[in-house]
């Protein structure tokens, strides 16, 4: 190595790359490089907290491995150098027979992912070093327990052996000894179990369990890299929209032991309750155990508060460390710790996952404590969490049959058919069934089923078990540790107190807020958050719900920050009033075709099929007063706020008789020699107008141009309704929107006719009307010629549903049911483009059209009225490209308001940086 080269630079052809960092070298801001776990271990080390020494292999090393299929050439030497330094510090050698150093190997991506490789503890143990560990600890049972754990973890996570084989062997050993828990097995029992485990490895993996400690460590490191592309990890990344190219870090940490007897143990702690957000002592502790025992839910834990009686010195130290970490991270912290014979060790900390309710409470608490400001509080909550809080909950007055109670791990009211494995949960869910996944405890293999289920119920584990942590992260209802329920996954049944048996397919209900489990379907009632938005519960009142108060404050922060206005998609006065209560600042889309369903459909049918001008005018004459009254009611409900009315835009087939039914009627009439002249005439007209692809056919502006008088009737109804409201001292603010425009000439023709009608109404009523006329941008050609179209439009509203269909060439009604599932599973989509806007394709057209439109008309108002208007990620995009408002369904308005505030807050933060 040349003298001017950094000694840390790896000689692997990747210039300037260092692949291994000691815990003393990193910090919490290096998550991209060291992963979340490694960065936080380094941060705790820098804070002077008791962290066992170790080192982190960076995500860069993983990326090289994933790209080339081989580890970087210099990685082995770097690992050897750091391992040697660790051995010097600890005064032991990895796996040496007389005084072995043992290490753990753990994955650690930037984002916590349940699908990643499980931890492997006790690496360095072998047939020889287990004797040295027993002598070193003065405890033979402990040494053999540690060894059987290594073989079990290594076999499952590194060699791919079915974990149930080890569990079955462990259960058999306990049954043979007639004991309930593994801590009652003695050293002789564990020696036999080690022998059995090694035979399982040999039979299933086709090789002996490795006795070379360095081979154990190297294979474990490689397994972590490989787990990045495991099916569960890829599924979780798609679900959470985590990029696939980040890679994972690997943490190698010197072992500390919680299974050395009653003065040792392991636990997980939260600085606040992750379910409610309340301050206090929250977590689980397990004496004489190693860390994975807690999160796996294999043994039932005791509440963390009991540690004060078990080991007050360690408890007091832990409380001080928890306070230090929360003040340092300015957030709820999730902590893993081990006590080894009275010595406390910190194994991990991270900003903890929390329920939606806890997120809102904690954000406002931290503002009150002066740890964060309002802008930061907005970044601590999400629109998805707010949407969860608006879900219904169980009716407390309902007659219920409670059969159990566990730990309230993740709130919500979930009802579904009991299923006992992940495969069935996915299968039934895809068939439209709502299911509850019932397990003794979950593990990463259950991720598919957890995603598919309405909720998760386990008979083992606590608030820090796998089921609880994953459910909270996904916003799924979860009840854990319902010990009185006997879950038999092999027989697909659950026995509840009293002997009643719940078979697979039976309905059950679980309450993730109380932990209660009920037989059958329990009725649900509205969320208090919805009642708040509807004005039936008032924040600040003496009896106000604490959660409602937190939501009220966060929404106030968002409304003060946001630039985007939020309107509603509403087609009648009832929806408009509800939207207004939810905070809508107008209507961004009134779909007039929805006003013609039901009894009025026949009038539109007659209009479309009319042969003569007289027939057409007669239909229009009947429709006009009905339309006018619709608009009067809408303007009254939204008085003083803009109401954007889209002229008729149905696919033609929605207003025509069904061609098959009509053909049958005609055929039957002919066979019976009954009169059928009208039906035959109707059938001929329907055949004439029949379209192979109605979504791309005679609809929108095309229909208005082909059927004279249709659009002018609607414009007249809008104008007369506005004049009537003005005469009643109202403040109608109507905007007329022309749908499916592809060229400026279409808009010019319709606009000219509309202006003439408005002038006629003004003259007849003596009322000055200000009716803006604009268009939807929902075709690629409209977006590409937006500069021309803006010459005739006072506003654009992006119809991103149709724009997505026409950009992608998708028929939404068909593709979502046919191949979208496969596209999502294969990672072609991270999320459906109908759910979150495709920024690269559809989004680029929106951005280009907005820019071109404003270049022509600087005061052009820009909005969006597709379903993307209520999608959190899409709202941020619309803020970035400079739209004026988003419009969404009434129940999504609070979500859009919150995300608009978060988008503005993030933009300010970026500008300041």
From TrEMBL:
Annotated Pyruvate phosphate dikinase AMP/ATP-binding domain residues: 75-300, 307-357
Domain of life per record: Bacteria
Reported cofactor(s): Mg(2+)
InterPro entries for the chain: ATP_grasp_subdomain_1, PEP-util_enz_mobile_dom, PEP_util_AS, PEP_util_C, Phosphohistidine_dom_sf, PPDK_AMP/ATP-bd, Pyruvate_phosphate_dikinase, Pyrv/PenolPyrv_kinase-like_dom
A single GO molecular function term of this UniProt record: pyruvate, phosphate dikinase activity
Record-linked PROSITE patterns: PEP_ENZYMES_PHOS_SITE
SUPFAM superfamilies per UniProt: Glutathione synthetase ATP-binding domain-like (SSF56059), Phosphoenolpyruvate/pyruvate domain (SSF51621), Phosphohistidine domain (SSF52009)
Annotated PEP-utilising enzyme mobile domain residues: 433-515
Alphabetical list of NCBIfam families matching this protein: PRK05878.1 (NF004531), pyru_phos_dikin (TIGR01828)
UniProt name for this protein: Pyruvate, phosphate dikinase
Organism: Streptomyces yaanensis
């Amino acid at each position: 190595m040349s003298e001017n080269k950094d000694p840390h630079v790896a000689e692997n052809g990747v210039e300037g790359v260092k692949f291994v960092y000691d815990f003393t070298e990193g910090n919490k801001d290096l998550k991209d490089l060291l992963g979340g776990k490694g960065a936080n271990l380094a941060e705790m080390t820098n804070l002077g907290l008791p962290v066992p020494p170790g080192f982190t292999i960076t995500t860069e090393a993983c990326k090289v491995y994933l790209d080339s299929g081989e580890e970087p050439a210099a990685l082995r030497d770097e690992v050897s150098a750091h391992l040697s330094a660790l051995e010097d510090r600890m005064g032991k050698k990895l796996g040496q027979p007389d005084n072995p150093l043992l290490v753990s190997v753990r994955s650690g991506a930037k984002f916590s992912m349940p699908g990643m490789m499980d931890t492997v503890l006790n690496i360095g143990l072998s047939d020889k070093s287990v004797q040295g560990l027993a002598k070193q600890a003065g405890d033979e049972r402990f040494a053999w327990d540690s060894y059987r754990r290594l073989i079990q973890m290594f076999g499952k996570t590194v060699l791919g052996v079915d974990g149930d084989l080890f569990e079955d062997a462990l259960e058999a050993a306990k049954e043979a000894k007639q004991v309930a828990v593994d801590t009652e097995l003695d050293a002789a029992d564990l020696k036999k179990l080690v022998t059995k485990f090694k035979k399982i490895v040999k039979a299933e993996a086709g090789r002996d369990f490795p006795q070379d400690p360095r081979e154990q460590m190297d294979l474990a490191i490689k397994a972590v890299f490989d787990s990045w592309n495991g099916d569960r990890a890829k599924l979780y990344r798609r679900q959470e929209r985590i990029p696939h190219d980040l890679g994972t870090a690997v943490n190698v940490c010197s072992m500390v032991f919680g299974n050395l007897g009653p003065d040792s143990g392991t636990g997980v702690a939260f600085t606040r309750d992750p379910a409610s957000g309340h301050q206090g002592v929250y977590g689980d502790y397990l004496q004489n155990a190693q860390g994975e025992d807690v999160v796996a839910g294999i043994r039932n834990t005791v509440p963390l508060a009991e540690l004060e009686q078990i080991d007050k010195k360690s408890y007091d130290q832990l409380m001080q460390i928890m306070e230090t970490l929360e003040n340092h991270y300015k957030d709820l912290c999730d902590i893993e710790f081990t006590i080894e014979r009275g010595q406390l060790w910190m194994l991990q900390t991270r900003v903890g996952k929390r329920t939606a309710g806890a997120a809102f409470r904690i954000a406002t608490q931290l503002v009150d404590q002066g740890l964060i400001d309002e802008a930061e509080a907005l970044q601590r909550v999400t629109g998805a969490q707010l949407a969860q809080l608006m879900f219904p909950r169980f009716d407390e007055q309902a007659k219920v049959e409670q059969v159990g109670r566990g730990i309230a791990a993740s709130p919500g009211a979930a009802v579904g058919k009991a299923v006992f494995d992940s495969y069935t949960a996915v299968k039934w869910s895809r068939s439209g069934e709502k299911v509850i996944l019932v397990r003794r405890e979950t593990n990463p293999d259950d991720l598919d089923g957890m995603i598919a289920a309405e909720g998760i119920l386990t008979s083992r584990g606590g608030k820090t078990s796998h089921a609880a942590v994953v459910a909270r992260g996904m916003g799924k209802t979860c009840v854990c540790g319902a010990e009185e329920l006997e879950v038999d996954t092999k027989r697909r049944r659950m026995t509840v107190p009293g002997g009643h048996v719940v078979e697979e397919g039976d309905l059950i209900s679980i309450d993730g807020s109380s932990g209660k489990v009920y037989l059958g379907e329990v009725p649900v009632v509205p969320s208090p958050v919805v009642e708040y938005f509807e004005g039936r519960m008032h924040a600040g009142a003496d009896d106000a719900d604490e959660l409602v108060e937190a939501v009220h404050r966060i929404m106030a922060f968002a409304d003060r920050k946001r630039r985007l206005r939020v309107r509603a998609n509403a087609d009648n006065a009832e929806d408009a009033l509800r939207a207004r209560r939810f905070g809508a600042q107008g209507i961004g889309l009134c779909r007039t075709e929805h006003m013609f369903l039901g009894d009025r459909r026949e009038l539109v049918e007659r209009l479309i099929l009319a042969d003569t001008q007289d027939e057409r005018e007669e239909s229009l004459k009947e429709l006009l007063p009905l339309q006018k009254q619709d608009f009067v009611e809408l303007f009254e409900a939204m008085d003083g706020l803009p109401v954007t009315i889209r002229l008729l835009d149905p696919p033609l087939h929605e207003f025509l008789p069904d061609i098959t039914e009509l053909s049958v009627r005609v055929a039957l009439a002919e066979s019976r020699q009954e009169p059928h002249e009208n039906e035959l005439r109707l059938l001929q007209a329907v055949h004439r107008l029949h379209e192979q692809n109605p979504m791309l056919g005679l609809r929108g502006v095309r229909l208005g141009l082909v059927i004279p008088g249709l659009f002018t009737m609607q414009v007249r109804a809008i104008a007369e309704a506005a004049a009537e409201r003005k005469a009643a001292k109202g403040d109608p603010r109507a905007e007329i929107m022309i749908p499916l425009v592809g060229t400026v000439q279409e808009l010019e023709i319709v606009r000219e006719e509309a202006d003439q009608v408005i002038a006629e109404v003004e003259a007849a009523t003596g009322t000055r009307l200000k009716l803006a006329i604009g268009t939807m941008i929902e075709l690629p050609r409209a977006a590409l010629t937006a500069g021309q179209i803006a010459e005739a439009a006072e506003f654009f509203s992006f119809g991103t549903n149709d724009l997505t269909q026409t950009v992608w060439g998708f028929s939404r009604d068909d593709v979502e049911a046919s191949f979208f599932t496969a596209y999502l599973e294969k990672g072609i989509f991270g999320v459906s483009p109908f759910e979150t806007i495709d920024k690269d394709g559809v989004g680029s057209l929106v951005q280009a059209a907005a820019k071109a439109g404003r270049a022509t008309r600087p005061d052009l108002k820009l909005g969006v009225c597709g379903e993307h208007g209520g999608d959190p990620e899409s709202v941020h995009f619309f803020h970035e490209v400079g739209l004026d408002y988003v419009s969404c369904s009434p129940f999504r308005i609070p979500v859009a308001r919150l995300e608009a505030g978060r988008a503005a807050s993030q933009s300010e933060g970026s500008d300041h940086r």
